[in-house]
Recover the amino acids of this structure.
């Protein structure tokens, strides 16, 4: 793909908020490998962010600068945004459970933090591209008990209209404080393209998984399931285990983000779903069975009640990205899971000989 050109020069300086998180660190590494100067901004509140920062430093040296800052700090946001060509905004509070415990903090991080980013761009650097990490949770529960049926040990939608998954035209139905805060940010990002002519794009992401993901029960569920199995600790299933998600390996997600960035003028103002699509779906029971095959024994499982905002079925319709950018998921689910398990095995082996890396963080 041809690099977008800004003011007669190639897009070179990119700010990645949440740049030491799972997705952010992988995107930062890819951009640096392509010759971009990257600023990875992070407040280091999440488990694994310090380790990801060190990985970035070791791998890319001066191509990536690490900035400890928070998107709620408007002065820090303005300073970092004033001299970049693009902002990839991934910093967020990411857990539904945490949003229920503290809705105000969830709002300040997700909604206000995003508005701080947009306002800094609008006022001080209006030519900078902005790509925002939204979530499939903006669609709400989607299907009630009558909207799904059980087939071959998994939920499937009763309507044939969902054969390709949930499209970007699906009405938003914000459920949980997390859904509300991310949904508000999602719409602000979209509207700043319409009202202020900013070059923004929204990426509504489904389940992304892969190396650099320090999963826990509230976020990064595939990595969490594998970690629990590796440590021989029980996995808690909320609901009946027939829930279905589409899953996308991190390298495929990174290609989508970079593709959008490199073609920002062609896709500005758009909203895209980003997930594995109908060909990369898995139920919780199916994932448990695959883990049993990988590990040579079934993991221990505990069942609990459904949680607020839990979707019995969600699959992304990703044809928008496919049609406009020629992007498709390349990594089969089985291959991606093996790669993630291998990385987690190395992680747990190394953490056994030094300070724990896998502390619980909600």
């Amino acid at each position: 793909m041809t690099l977008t050109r800004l003011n007669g020069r190639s897009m070179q300086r990119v700010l990645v908020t949440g740049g030491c998180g799972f997705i952010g660190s992988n995107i930062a590494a890819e951009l640096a490998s392509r010759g971009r100067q990257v600023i990875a901004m992070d407040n280091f509140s999440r488990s694994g962010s310090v380790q990801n920062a060190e990985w970035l430093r070791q791998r890319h040296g001066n191509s990536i600068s690490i900035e400890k800052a928070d998107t709620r700090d408007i002065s820090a946001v303005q300073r970092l945004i004033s001299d970049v060509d693009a902002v990839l905004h991934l910093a967020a509070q990411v857990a539904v459970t945490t949003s229920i415990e503290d809705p105000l903090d969830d709002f300040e991080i997700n909604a206000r933090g995003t508005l701080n980013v947009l306002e800094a761009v609008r006022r001080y650097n209006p030519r900078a591209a902005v790509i925002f990490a939204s979530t499939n949770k903006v669609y709400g529960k989607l299907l009630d008990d009558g909207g799904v049926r059980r087939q071959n040990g998994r939920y499937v939608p009763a309507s044939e209209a969902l054969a390709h998954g949930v499209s970007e035209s699906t009405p938003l139905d914000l459920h949980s404080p997390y859904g509300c805060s991310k949904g508000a940010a999602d719409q602000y990002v979209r509207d700043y393209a319409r009202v202020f002519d900013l070059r923004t794009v929204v990426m509504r992401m489904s389940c992304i998984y892969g190396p650099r993901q320090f999963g826990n029960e509230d976020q990064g569920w595939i990595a969490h399931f594998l970690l629990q199995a590796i440590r021989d600790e029980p996995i808690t299933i909320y609901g009946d285990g027939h829930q279905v998600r589409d899953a996308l390996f991190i390298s495929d997600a990174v290609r989508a983000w970079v593709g959008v960035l490199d073609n920002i003028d062609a896709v500005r103002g758009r909203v895209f779903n980003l997930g594995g699509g109908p060909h990369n779906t898995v139920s919780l029971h199916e994932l448990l069975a695959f883990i049993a095959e990988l590990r040579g024994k079934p993991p221990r499982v505990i069942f609990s009640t459904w949680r607020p905002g839990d979707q019995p079925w969600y699959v992304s319709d990703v044809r928008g990205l496919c049609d406009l950018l020629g992007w498709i998921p390349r990594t089969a689910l089985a291959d991606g899971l093996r790669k993630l398990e291998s990385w987690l095995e190395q992680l747990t082996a190394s953490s056994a000989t030094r300070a724990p890396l896998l502390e619980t963080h909600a």
Notes: Residues 1-9, 355-362 have pLDDT under 50 and may be disordered.
